[in-house]
């Protein structure tokens, strides 16, 4: 019988480890450099053993119902057990993260094509406009649509269901 460490990992396993590493980064358990290195290794991993080595020094994630963390005072939610189980959703202020995510790729590619254009002499037709223009127009329309109709918020519950499904699959596989 094959040992678990030698079995090939699937894409969903790599994604689970990537999400666990992101949680560790958000908790302050990993530096940005460590996170970047481990994330690169996670997506290059071939076996469960490769993935396990990336998580070995991180504590396991406990569901909120089984967490041993207890609020310090009644003001923090000890008097109300439902308040301790359901974290408050932070108030959304400022620049929505999804806009940054949507436009960061465009900005990166725009910088690259402009640098190439400048390094090749910057003469003649300004060809980067054919890369930046159509893509930017589509992104602008999507951004306006998302801001007006709140499209990003509508997908929050769908993403939460998808994450819960993925966590159940990982629990069955032994992660």
TrEMBL record:
Transmembrane segments: 98-120, 132-151
InterPro entries according to UniProt: DUF1707_SHOCT-like (IPR012551)
Domain DUF1707: 7-59
Signal peptide range in chain numbering: none
Coiled-coil positions: none
Superkingdom, taxonomy of origin: Bacteria
Alphabetized UniProt keyword annotations: Membrane, Transmembrane, Transmembrane helix
Residue segments, region Disordered: 65-90
Protein name from the UniProt record: DUF1707 domain-containing protein
Species whose genome carries this gene: Planosporangium thailandense
Lineage: Bacteria, Bacillati, Actinomycetota, Actinomycetes, Micromonosporales
């Amino acid at each position: 019988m094959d040992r678990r460490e030698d079995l090939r990992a699937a894409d969903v396993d790599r994604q689970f480890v990537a999400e666990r590493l992101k949680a560790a980064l958000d908790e302050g358990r990993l530096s940005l450099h460590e996170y970047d290195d481990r994330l690169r290794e996670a997506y290059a991993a071939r076996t469960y053993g490769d993935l396990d080595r990336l998580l070995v020094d991180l504590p396991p994630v406990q569901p909120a119902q089984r967490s041993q963390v207890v609020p310090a005072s009644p003001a923090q939610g000890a008097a109300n057990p439902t308040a301790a189980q359901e974290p408050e959703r932070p108030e959304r202020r400022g620049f929505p993260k999804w806009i940054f995510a949507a436009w960061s790729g465009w900005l990166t590619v725009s910088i690259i094509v402009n640098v190439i254009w400048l390094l090749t002499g910057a003469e003649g037709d300004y060809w980067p406009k054919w890369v930046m223009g159509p893509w930017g127009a589509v992104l602008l329309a999507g951004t306006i649509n998302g801001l007006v109709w709140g499209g990003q918020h509508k997908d929050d519950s769908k993403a939460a269901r998808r994450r819960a499904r993925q966590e159940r699959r990982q629990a069955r596989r032994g992660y």
